[in-house]
Amino acid sequence: MTAINDVVDLTREGEIAVITLDSPPVNALSAQLRAGIAQAVEQAVADDAAKAIVLTCAGRTFCAGADITEFGKPPKDPSLSAVQAVIEAAPKPVIAAIHGTALGGGLELALSCHYRVAVPSARCGLPEVKLGILPGAGGTQRLPRIVGAEQALEMITSGAHVTAKDAAAMGLFDKLVAEGNLREDAIAFAREVIASGAPLKKVRDLDEAIAPARGKPEIFAEFRKKNARKFRGFEAPEACIQAVEAAVEKPFEEGLKFERALFEKLVASEQSAAQRYAFFAEREAAKIPDIPKDTPTREIARVGMIGAGTMGGGISMNFLNAGIPVTIVETNQDALDRGLATIRKNYENSAKRGRLSMEDVEKRMALITPSLALDDLADCDLVIEAVFELMEVKKEIFTKLDGICKPGAIMASNTSYLDIDKIASVTSRPGDVLGMHFFSPANVMRLLEVVRGEKTEKDVVATAMALGKRIGKVAVCVGVAHGFVGNRMLSERQREANNLIMEGAMPWDVDRVLHDFGLPMGPFAMADLAGLDLGWTPENSTGETAKERLCEIDRRGQKNGKGFYDYDENRKATPSKVTEEIILDLSRAKGITRRAISDQEILERCIYPMINEGAKILQEGKALRASDIDIVWLTGYGWPVYRGGPMFYADTIGLDKVVAALETYAKSLGPDFEPAELLVRTAKEGKRISEM
Ligand code: T1G
């Protein structure tokens, strides 16, 4: 065996040279790995006894892409393209042996090989678009030459992983070999290739798969139209489409140059910086400084769910999806039946869309133990309550749970705002109590705020964080404060949105500005969707807000076709004259002289107070790091990932500008806008708040 460098070995098995890459954790294509591969291939080519070359990886996966930590730094030779040129110039077959996830540059490396074999559990993909870039080492030129333009467009603009089975069906993988026998089977495959005497085929020279798309711009026009909503605001998907068009219409080398030019532009863009930041921020959120990564966690074999309503049902589905049995407790049979029926309907809808088989639906429903008695929770390892959002009700439930739950069981509240320490104080075991705040729709939104109480045991926090990952959530550890992180910042935006429509804007102005900013919908459209009458009753209505006035005349939102907006039978929203009159009337009643308000002022007054509140959250130690706050907004509220999150966005604008604007607004609008001390200091020191 020859150690080419610290991360690349070269051995020979008979007439087969075997290059093994070993650069934990994911064999990302660092400069050292690239240099080692090029050198190993050159040595194997020079070795006359070697008739073919197998390129394989040790550890958990084949190369998972370029080393993202190298982005934004001066590039180091050899480039990945240079390594690919060495492989393509080899006069003997080079076979990529794939396990784990061959992603991005990893798949592009494999595409420069003559053949690709994989184990059935392997997956591959070109996820660069998720980082705000596009495949920059020939992926947009080589992939279409194997799978065709349409399939390539889907894969490259979605960044989705493709299973080995599907990759083989597309011709991306030449053979699926035995699980756990990759190296030996890849060597055997190499021997078959030698014995076949087949001429060496380079992917770059293939044309059959892309020829049908040639001279058909409508393929790309239709693809753009079909995906316009999904790609709204993003720069990278359009670049991906243009690169695939180039693969179809231009000679390979020209297409490669076109791809490189697009890549250079995107990798230097603000959007890509934001998306790369989000990639690492999501992984950073799993790290809690005072809780070691290997902290033993409690076994969660059965979950108890109190409440089968919208939240309780949605939360339960997360565990059912992960194969974890759930005991669902309601107060009466009707509520229980309704809850179970909703869960079943959701699953059957997924089955209709082909995401689940009916067998899967039945398997998941069979994991539910419905109950009308809290005592049935005695064997649960974790109990989550999603009952009415009132402290008295929460305290009553936890008092009962304290007497029912087995020793060591974790008791969690799904409260959106309330004080976990107060809830824990009614139990004899506050160390086993914490918040697990899911976001509606709970079976869809990825965010899970794990609310750590003052007395919550470290292993309980570690268990909730690990369980979050197990059920496909992004768990963020937050501190106890009204609204924790996300809703606390949302309250700031809501206050300003309501003030803005009193001062001169209309709901549709505010919604338009925030939608154009990249949010899925603005606060008033969101309120109509959720229902204006949440928590409203005629008895408690003061009539002092537009929302209450609307409820008073039975305009409850989408649910009854009219709220801030009027809705047609397809739920298409149009601004309502009724709403406009109510708002004008309220302004008059409050003695406010309405004025024209610019889009810029609307944006700043909705977003900057959120940034300010985020800084206060950091000052108070209620979030571990600014990037956690951004992950909360990216995964819980649909903040556009190409803007990185509220804190990253503040740095993009320039923290000094944000502070100056807050100070100006504070003079005219009052202390709500006084900039947080941390924000002022960070700006003064010329540092980035997103790095706090
Ligand atoms: N570069 C550097 N570090 C990476 C990395 C990468 N590409 N991928 C993962 N890591 C780190 C990650 O930060 C974490 O570090 C550890 O590995 C485990 O990751 C030329 C230019 C492979 C599916 O976008 O999707 O190729 O926190 O926690 O859940 O066209 O990592 O332990 O210190 O995510 O098992 C394209 C990104 C790059 C793939 C594994 N490739 N990675 O998931 O583990 S751009 C990607 C992933 C490119 C070319 C272009 C996932 C994974 P730490 P993890 P996981």
TrEMBL record:
Its EC number is 1.1.1.35. Residues 483-567, 602-687 form the 3-hydroxyacyl-CoA dehydrogenase C-terminal domain. GO terms for biological process: fatty acid beta-oxidation. Its main location: other. GO terms for molecular function: (3S)-3-hydroxyacyl-CoA dehydrogenase (NAD+) activity; enoyl-CoA hydratase activity; isomerase activity; NAD+ binding. It catalyses: a (3S)-3-hydroxyacyl-CoA + NAD(+) = a 3-oxoacyl-CoA + NADH + H(+). Pathway: Lipid metabolism; fatty acid beta-oxidation. Pfam families: 3HCDH, 3HCDH_N, ECH_1. It is found in: Peroxisome. Signal peptide: none annotated. Keywords: Fatty acid metabolism, Isomerase, Lipid degradation, Lipid metabolism, Lyase, Multifunctional enzyme, NAD, Oxidoreductase, Peroxisome. Residues 303-478 form the 3-hydroxyacyl-CoA dehydrogenase NAD binding domain. The keyword Oxidoreductase applies. It comes from the Bacteria. CDD domains: crotonase-like (cd06558). In the N-terminal section; belongs to the enoyl-CoA hydratase/isomerase family. Belongs to the enoyl-CoA hydratase/isomerase family. PANTHER family: 3-HYDROXYACYL-COA DEHYROGENASE. This is 3-hydroxyacyl-CoA dehydrogenase. It comes from Saliniramus fredricksonii.
